[in-house]
Amino acid sequence: RRGMATEVAAAGARMPVSVLVLVALVVVCLSANGAAAQQASGVAATYNLYNPEKINWDLRVASVFCATWDADMPLAWRQRYGWTAFCGPAGAHGQPSCGRCLQVRTHSVSCYGSRVV
Fold it and tell me: According to the UniProt entry, where is the signal peptide (predicted)?
C-alpha cells in the first residue's frame, strides 16, 4: 500500500518500517583502512536501537560485534555517525567491516550516514 505509513514497535519505540529495514542502495563511502568505495543495490540492513547517546557511546555496553576492535577509539570517532549492523552480501564481513561508514539510500530517506559497529 503505497504512501501508507506502517510502523513497528522496537524496544518500546514506534518507528516507520522504512527506517527499520533499510533496503535500496548501500555505498561504503569511507573505510577504516582506506579501501576504495564499493556499491551494491538491493542490499538489506536491519535497524538496531542502540541508543548510543544514552550509553555514552560505549560500544562495550551496547555489546556490539566490533567492540573488540573499536571500543577504545576516541569519543569523537564513535559519535561521528549513527551506528548500524551490516551483513552484506557485498563488501567486507566480520572484523574488516568494523568502523566502515555506509551511505544508505532508502525509499523515504535520501541519504543516511552510519558506522558499522
Answer: 1-31
The domain spans of the chain are: 7-116
**CATH architecture type of domain 7-116:** Beta Barrel (2.40)
The label of the residue with cell 582506506 reads: 34
Whether the link from the prior residue into 89 is cis, omega within 30° of 0, is yes
CA distances from 32 to 50, 83, 92 (A): 21, 15, 11
User: What global pTM score does this model have?
Assistant: 0.53
- Phi, psi (deg, nearest 5) at residue 17: -55, -35
